[in-house]
Design brief:
single chain; Immunoglobulin-like; S-adenosyl-L-methionine-dependent methyltransferases; 7 domains
Length: about 1000
Amino acid sequence: MRMKSIEFINLHPFYKRGLPYTGKVFCHSSESPLSNETVDVNDEETHLSFLTDKNGEVHFSLDTTSWNSTLVSLKATYKLGKDNEQNSSESYTGVEDSFHWLKPFYSESNSFLEIKARNDVMPCDQEQEVQVDYILDQNKLSSEADHINFYYLAIAKRKILFNREKRVPILQHENLQGSFSLTLTIGNDFLPDIKLLLYAVFLYGEVVADMEEFQVEECFRHKMSRNTRSVALDFSHEKVPGSKVSLDLKAALGSPCSVQAVDKSVLLNKDNTLIANTILRMKILTNTRIKKPVSCMKPGFEKKKYIGKYSVFENHVGHNDSVPHSDNTRKPRPRTLFPETWISDLVSVRDDGQASLQAAVPDTITEWNANTFCVADTGFGWSPLTTLKVFQPFFVDLSLPYSLIQGETFSLKATVFNCLKDCIQVRTTLTETPELKVDACPECQFTSCLCANEAKTFEWNVTATRLGKVNVTVSSVAEDSHNLFGNRIAVTPLQGERDTVIKPLLLKPGGVLQEKTHYAFCCAADNTVSEEFSLMLPAEVLEGSDRATFSVIGDIMGPALQNLDHLLMMPFGCGEQNMVQFAPNIFILQYVKKTKQLYPEIEEKALKFLRTGYQSQLLYKHDDGSYSAFGNLTTRAIHGPLDKPVLTFTSVRIMCTMLCSGCRSTSCPVAASVGAVDDTISLTAYITAALVELHLEKNDTMLNNALHCLKNVTLDKTSLYVKALMAYVFTLRKDMEMREQLLDMLEKETAELLTSHSSSEESSSSSSMIETAAYILLAYVSKPDLAYNDASMTKLVHWLSGQRNAFGGFASTQDTVVSLQALAQYAALISQEIRDVKVTVKSKEASPLVFHVHRNNKLVLHQAPLPAVPGMYTVQATGSGCVYVQTSLYYNIPPPETEEVFVLDVETVPREWDDVRKQLDIHVSISYTGSCEISNMALVEVEMLSGFIPVSSSVTAVRLFSLVSSEDKKISFPDVVQPEISKLK
């Protein structure tokens, strides 16, 4: 059942009595025009019937002579005849009428002018006739007048383009009603629309006038010839893959032109098509000093042979293909070239105003959209899209996923299309290679008959065995056969009896990705400093998955500056993980401001993340001022720049959770431990540090109670983490006695630990030690009279720098935030002058890599792949200044065996499974089996099978877990898992 609608369009709100009133009616169903419909247009006295044209429109004209200068009601409706009702294949309902009220136009003498155009859009570079109807009062003219002067002017772009006069003869005692025409020549100056004002002045000063606005066809100043203003691009409308095609271009003499041709599918549902409307009225603003280029064009330049990534232009003499040959004897070549962009090139127009390109057509069966734009002294020129259809009557098409996991079995599909008028018998084969193993399928049929305009899909189960890009080759051959198919005999095409398609497929390693990084801080003072790196692989590494990179940068905060948006390789969505994108921006902005390195691009990037992170963090705020998704987040939240009212409310919430003694109450459930310990003292120290950073008043009772609680702690029985936090707290409160006592104990206890803990240890141990070292460094750098050459502080900085991951972050969210805060404060205090440092990376297996770092590029991350893995590398830094060098080693290993504290059950159930659609339901069940009442935050990742993507509606349905993210082919969601089974679908 479809709804019919009718409406008036482009109606003038006023009528002029005595002049015909014209308008349009549009009849449509669901925005589709309805043609040959009977439409009735009625005023208060007239009833007219019309038939809609192919556009569903009716143009009507009404006599206004009898209208009595009052409001007039127009009504439009249509009626479906009996024959149409019986023969119509569609059912319509809900017929609507349309009404429109018209007001009389006022004139003291009942004299009127009305401008009417013959076309809705005025064509460019052509003369256009505009009709003017008039009715005038004879008494307003001189009795001796034999003519009347009409004046008209054209307005475009807020300027009067011209004003002219039209003399119309009149006869005495004649009824002054009639019409005349004005001839306008429309050009580029009139874009995008023109207002035409027409008026006449009577003897005693009365003015009668009319104004109308017209759209103008989009055009440019660029002249292809004296009489035309355009650029033209033409080529054949249909070609077969691999054939030659000529693109013929016409433009102004000597114009440089840009020619593009892209696959039509690229432009679908995308607003990136070059059209005149996106270019017109564009203003170019620049402060660049532009000089006219010197022409170095040599004769024959336009006849160059250009070999690009995706296209071949050639028009040289003596090419092998110039030898005549028979298509019947030529063996069909495989189709291997499937670009999205076919042509992107600059062409120079010859002195005769023409240019041409000889291009080889790519192998995609598609439509190519080509256009060009040219520039010349006369202006900008542009050609509309022209289309080339690449087609062959019999072809095979492959449906491949972007990538596969090594060892994964997937369904490879090939569809054969027959666009011939006859039936053919085809045999389709998949070439088996060492990289792709094809499962045997004795019952599968790979030979089939295809009649006219039919298609057949063939399917193989294939297992990927080798990493990297591999070629998938599928061939389909039209075999000789005289079998009857229905009442038709299969034939063999005279040409194109075979089609072979070769497409690449990326194979990725399976297992679990591992990352090993090694940092070094190299300072050269007009000498040479060396560091050695050993890239070793474990025995269980998956073959072919290893790779390594080397990076160098001239600033201690450089790695974090380059990777503000992904300091950690983990999914985001939880409030704590949000902090790692949020808080470091504050410290980094403070650092670059102090060191006078706040460039606009750095500030814009950091502020963007601050705004996003701030809004995201407020999503976790509860009504009582606390922050939590399912654990304790409140204390960590106040590390960010919350609004003052929000921050005060949150601080009160934290204080209210403390006991009268000042020590943090442990009655509230805390799912995630803070640092290395989860007890009353560690939580009190952590919260006190956060409150001290807020610079509360010294006589604040709750804060003083908390400090009193910490002072009464037995230090010999307290963990390193709590001592480090306390050292930082008492440094901020300027209690130097407690600070020195704590730092002396920490220096003795950490001397051995800082050398034994390396980035290769497990993240849990490393993370707690990193955070501890960061708080010790904060205690050092927060002292007002800091000794810059303090050996203990320098040792901490070197150790912390060596714990970074490949992105400039650390092991977890919390140690990343604290460590970057400590390093940023240190770097802002210590001068890091760098003049010029040359870094050379050497190995026995490869040529050396050389990098130059100086004051102008010290914030630029220089990076290159290392060719030999495993291997030994020596890094030498010469010159004057300090640089930070890093090697990052990546490889995959089989999933390690770990102690199970979760039970995970995954079931795949087909929902819709046929030749057209394949949908699966993935049922995931998780339960916690550990010793605690509930788990810490657990992260569940569901990665899709190759070739499948998650259905967006199902992702929305899993929002009951509240924090779901979808990226690439992976669904991630965090949750606190209890012994009861949690399920999602």
